[in-house]
Every structure is written in structure tokens, then in C-alpha cells.
């Protein structure tokens, strides 16, 4: 139960029905109160730039008439940074804009309902939880990340380590899990791993229609080939494989290499795809040659899986509190003793590259690095 005054929510959506629905959700959610609403970005800008309006979290429709959600997000973040929850439609263009919004400072995203009763129930639950999650996030740290106003690839490459030399352990796979605030964090880590003489597998908690767009953005911002994984695809080195939303993804070892196995099972740790499921498969199938990285996110998904990887001899890293938008998943991993190193975001890629190119595999590198919080 939240102590102190409720979080003040401002809603921007051109649909009167959605504005009313979110308003009702806010009224029914303990710890939230409605501060106001607007049907366009222009109207919202006129209200939010006033010094006397108090807002703790913004619900933002990304497809708006006139100024779109991306342009508004950049504008408001420049003068009045605040946590933003993106409320997105089902179109391809909405998915593209949502991923851009997450790169530009939005904390998280939810998808609008399609009219089915089950979808309405899902939207109500997701919106209530998403608004609280965004309001409680460390959004100031999110804003201190490289600004996408400049070309993101150029910014990330400026600090990119060079791996140099051939990878001695051909079985190395880097597994990355992230949730709230994770899109720019994943982009930064993956960019630092290039040219990546190993497969990179990513689970980012996102709705099904968004993960293919995330793969596109990863390729654009990191320069590495990036694809949404399909069932039984071979996980080739030098490529980023994104777990598809709505399906769990496991790593399977075959005589010819490692492959992705997708399944439509129940939610695990509250998510599908689940980071725990990916990490647990890496522990079983890759063992001491695997490298696990858990980034910003609410809850505990991935923490138990990272512990399984750690126990199997894999090298494991958790993002630290100071650079996490939400210090949930990495905090639990740290408390479990699952992380060999707890590092700020900007140091994670360097550490992973050092281990992957050590010439002796993740298991030996983990033992030789010594300090847990390097």
C-alpha cells in the first residue's frame, strides 16, 4: 500500500471512450488520482506547461491528430521530464512509434483493447499496474541515458569496446533479459557487444506486435543483424535474436549448434515470454559457456533463471540500482546471489566482451575475475 499522497495522472488520448476508461481505472486504483485529460498533444501542451499543474505520471496515446506522440514526448521531456506510460493501438505504425517512444524516454507501454471482454479486463489490469509502475520508476536515470535526439547508433558506438581476436569458445551465447525501461538499456548493451562473434538472445517484456519492431530498431541502432526468433531457427553468431511477444523461448542444443524452441504455454513469472524460461534453458543447454545479463525491470522474472545460470557455471551480470529505471528484477537477482558482477549500464558490455573473448570460456573467466561487484 502506497504511503503519502496519490500519484496524479494526466491522460492524453483522442478517443473519448479511452479517456473515460482510463479515468475510471484511475478512480478505482488505490494510490492514483486523475489530474486532467486532453484529446490532443497541443491541448495537453497548453495545460502541462503551466507551472501550477501537478502531474506525476502521463498516459500518452502515441497516434494523435496534429502533433503525434513522439514529437510531444520529445517536447515535454525537454522542459518537464516525467514518467510516461504509452497507450498504443494495434496497427503496425503504432508499434513502430511505441518502440521509438520507449527509446525517447517513455517508461513502459500497454496495448489498447480490441473490444473483446477479455481484452477489456486485460487493459484495465495492465493500465492500473502500468501507471503505478511508471510513477514509481526512477525516470531521472532513464533520462540520463544517451538522448535519441542525436543518431542513437552514433552515440552508442562512441563508447563501444572492440573485442578483437577470435572467440575461443564457440559455444558462447549471451542471454539478455529486460522489462520496464529496458529498450534503451538493451540497445546500449547490444551495441557494445558488436561485432559479437556469438549469438545474442534477448527477452524484452513487450506485447506480441511490438517485438518484431524491436528487432528492427536493434538492427538500426546497433548495426548487428537482428531478427524476431522463429521456432527451430539456428542461433547464429553475430546476430541478435529477439524472443517474440506472446511465446516462451528456450535454447536447445543440437549436433549442428544451438536453436530456438518456441512454445505457447501459460505465463511464467507473470510474463510471456519469460526471462526465467530462457535463462533456465541456457543453464541446462549451454552451461558454463553461457553469459547472462539481467537489466532494469519490475518484479522478479529472470532472477531465478540467472541463479540457475550462475550455478551451472555461466558468467552472470545484473544492472545496478543507480542506472536502473526500475530496480526490481536485478535487485532480486543480486539478493539471491545470482550475479557475478553488479554493474552500471555503461560497463556491462565491456565486462561481457572481456569474458567472452578471454579465450577460456565464461566458467573460467567468472572464477578468475574474483570480485562480485567489479
Protein described:
The chain has 374 residues and is α/β, with parallel strands linked by helices. It folds into two domains: 7-136, Rossmann fold (3-Layer(aba) Sandwich); 152-369, 3-Layer(aba) Sandwich (Rossmann fold). The protein is 39% helix and 19% strand. The chain contains 14 helices and 14 strands. The protein has helices at 16-28, 41-48, 69-79, 92-103, 117-135, 139-143, 152-157, 182-193, 211-222, 275-285, 303-311, 329-336, 345-356, 361-369, and strands at 7-12, 32-38, 57-61, 84-88, 108-111, 173-178, 200-204, 226-228, 240-242, 248-254, 257-263, 290-294, 315-319, 341-343. It has a seven-stranded parallel sheet with strand order 8-9-7-6-12-13-14, sandwiched between helices. A five-stranded parallel sheet has the order 2-1-3-4-5, with helices on both faces. The chain has a two-stranded antiparallel sheet with strand order 10-11. The relative contact order is 0.10. Residues 143-167 have low confidence and may be disordered.
The number of domains:
2
CATH topology of the largest domain: Rossmann fold
Task: Give the proportion of residues in helices.
Answer: 25-40%
CATH class descriptor of the largest domain: Alpha Beta
Q: Note the quaternary state here.
A: single chain
Count of alpha/pi helices: 14
Helix/strand-derived class?
Answer: alpha/beta
Amino acid at each position: 500500500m502506497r504511503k503519502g499522497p496519490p500519484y496524479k495522472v494526466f491522460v492524453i488520448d483522442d478517443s473519448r471512450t479511452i479517456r473515460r476508461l482510463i479515468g475510471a481505472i484511475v478512480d478505482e486504483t488505490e494510490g492514483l488520482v486523475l489530474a486532467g485529460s486532453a484529446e490532443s498533444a497541443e491541448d495537453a501542451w497548453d495545460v502541462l506547461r503551466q507551472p501550477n499543474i501537478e502531474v506525476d505520471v502521463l498516459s500518452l496515446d502515441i497516434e494523435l491528430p496534429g502533433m503525434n506522440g513522439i514529437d510531444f514526448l520529445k517536447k515535454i521531456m525537454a522542459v518537464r521530464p516525467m514518467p510516461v506510460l504509452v497507450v498504443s493501438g494495434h496497427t503496425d505504425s503504432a508499434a513502430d512509434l511505441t518502440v521509438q517512444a520507449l527509446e525517447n524516454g517513455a517508461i513502459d507501454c500497454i496495448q489498447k483493447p480490441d473490444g473483446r471482454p477479455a481484452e477489456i479486463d486485460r487493459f484495465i489490469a495492465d493500465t492500473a499496474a502500468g501507471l503505478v509502475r511508471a510513477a514509481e520508476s526512477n525516470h531521472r536515470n532513464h533520462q540520463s541515458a544517451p538522448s535519441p535526439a542525436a543518431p542513437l547508433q552514433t552515440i552508442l558506438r562512441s563508447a563501444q569496446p572492440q573485442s578483437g581476436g577470435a572467440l575461443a569458445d564457440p559455444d558462447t551465447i549471451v542471454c539478455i533479459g529486460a522489462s520496464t525501461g529496458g529498450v534503451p538499456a538493451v540497445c546500449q548493451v547490444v551495441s557494445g557487444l558488436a561485432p559479437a562473434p556469438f549469438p545474442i538472445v534477448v527477452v524484452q517484456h513487450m506485447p506480441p506486435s511490438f517485438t518484431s519492431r524491436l528487432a528492427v530498431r536493434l538492427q538500426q541502432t546497433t548495426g548487428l543483424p537482428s531478427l524476431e526468433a522463429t521456432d527451430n531457427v539456428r542461433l547464429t553468431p553475430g546476430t541478435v535474436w529477439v524472443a517474440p511477444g506472446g511465446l516462451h523461448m528456450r535454447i536447445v542444443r543440437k549436433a549442428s549448434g544451438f536453436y530456438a524452441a518456441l512454445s505457447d504455454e501459460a505465463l511464467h513469472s507473470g510474463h510471456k515470454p519469460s526471462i526465467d524460461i530462457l535463462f533456465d534453458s541456457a543453464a541446462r543447454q549451454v552451461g558454463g559457456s553461457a553469459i547472462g545479463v539481467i537489466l532494469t525491470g519490475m518484479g522478479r522474472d529472470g532472477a531465478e533463471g540467472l541463479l540457475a545460470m550462475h550455478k551451472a557455471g555461466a558468467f552472470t551480470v545484473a544492472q545496478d540500482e543507480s542506472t536502473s529505471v526500475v530496480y526490481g528484477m536485478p535487485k532480486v537477482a543480486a539478493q539471491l546471489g545470482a550475479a557475478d558482477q553488479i554493474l552500471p549500464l555503461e560497463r556491462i558490455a565491456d565486462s561481457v566482451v572481456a569474458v567472452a573473448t578471454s579465450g577460456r570460456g565464461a566458467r573460467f573467466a567468472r572464477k578468475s575475475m574474483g570480485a562480485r561487484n567489479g
